[in-house]
Structure prediction request, 153 residues.
Amino acid sequence: MPSQDYECSIKATATLEECFEKIGQVSEWWTKNFDGSARKPGDAFTVHFGETFVDFKIAEAIPSKKIVWQVTNSNLPFLKDKTEWNGTSVIWELSSENGTTTVAMIHRGLVPEVECYNNCQEGWNFYVTNSLRRFLTEGKGLPDGKGRSKGEV
Prediction:
């Protein structure tokens, strides 16, 4: 049975090393309201969207191959369970072929049965497939939803 976790992928004409490095530059493609570091195992960081925040810890980082962000705490005030993301993981896997790097992202635990799925899916679709892709290919992302039609996280 296929995974029900949220997944998406993008392709970029950037090296594995560049993609790995730029994923960790969260303030350039997700939100300017970023505290901490997202570069190596043990690093911790927080993203903020008004009252909404998510704390992450880098659980794993294999240079140019894989990064795992573990959610350690969250406040999603628009949900009944404001800590719905706690214990979930955002997994980034990188591969390269013929000068093109594929960045695959899985949000393990973000499944259709949870309340946030539709809003969070829409948010990730924008931030990964639009903003991060632009940051990787053009050097400028769209943090904080610049260019989005809706204001969800």
Summary: Residues 117-138 form the longest helix (22 residues).
